[in-house]
Amino acid sequence: MKVNILASGSNGNCIALTSGDSTILVDAGIAKTKIEKRLLEVGITPNNIEAIFITHAHTDHCKGLPLANKYNIPVYAGEEEWKDIDLVSEDLCHIADQESVLVPFSDEDWVFEVSPFDVHHDAYEPKGYVIENAEGNFKTSICLDTGKVDEIMLFQMRHSDIYIIESNHEPRMVEASDYPNSVKARVLSHIGHLSNAQTAEALSKLIQGNGEQIYLTHLSSNNNLPALAEMTTKRALYQKGFIENKHYKLEVV
Q1: Residue 227: CB partners within 8 Å, gap ≥ 6?
Q2: pTM score, two decimals?
Q3: Are 71 and 36 in contact (CB under 8 A)?
Q4: Do 98 and 182 fall within a single domain?
Q5: Could you report the per-residue pLDDT of 153-190, keeping only the tens digit for each?
Q6: d(CA 39, CA 26)
Q7: First to last CA, the chain
Q8: pLDDT tens per residue, range 83-112
Q9: What was the pLDDT predicted at 60?
Q10: How far apart are CA 44 and CA 131, in angstroms?
Q11: Which residues pair with residue 25 across a beta bridge?
Q12: Same domain, 110 and 156
């Protein structure tokens, strides 16, 4: 399974997962034309997109959904999230509930099995996603906007080969920022975003030292530093006896 993170952060999020000639997107939070351009840059033609899975309906995760109409792509999101999504033709709208979705939609010829799980964010019904290939020997977990990682989320994501998870902020930088107090409280709340320390703690429970690939994503441009996010996770994993490039790989996006 090939991963291309086409966009990450408050200006937009879009992740492409490819197996063979088939690709799915998780989120489409940049303009349609930018998604098309970035797909082509990594060798993916937009008409090979089999499905789009939306984590939640905030603009930085669904701005580019007119892509679905242009290429007739099914779109999945939590049932309640459709209250805030009006960019997709009705016949392409599907509900991401607790049932796994087989992509592309044939019991005899499917490439991905996508399983949604609940996360904690100030949206109606936000989701994370676990994606497995048809052979059942490769697993990717995607956990973006969430204010905490609970035991059910850890259970869903366990034994993944790839972890794509937000490492959004450093709390002291948020507190010292010029954000209004209401925004600071939102970011730091249990329905806000993960701090570097929260992400590192979750990964220390998930990583088994089997060569897993970690992508730290959705970093705040104002309240974080890539080196700080990276070192916080590396330190937590080192305390578990895991060394980068020996037991796992890490990339900050």
Answers
A1: none
A2: 0.96
A3: no
A4: no
A5: 999 999 999 999 999 999 999 999 999 999 999 999 99
A6: 13
A7: 18
A8: 999 999 999 999 998 889 998 765 567 899
A9: 97
A10: 19
A11: 16, 52
A12: no
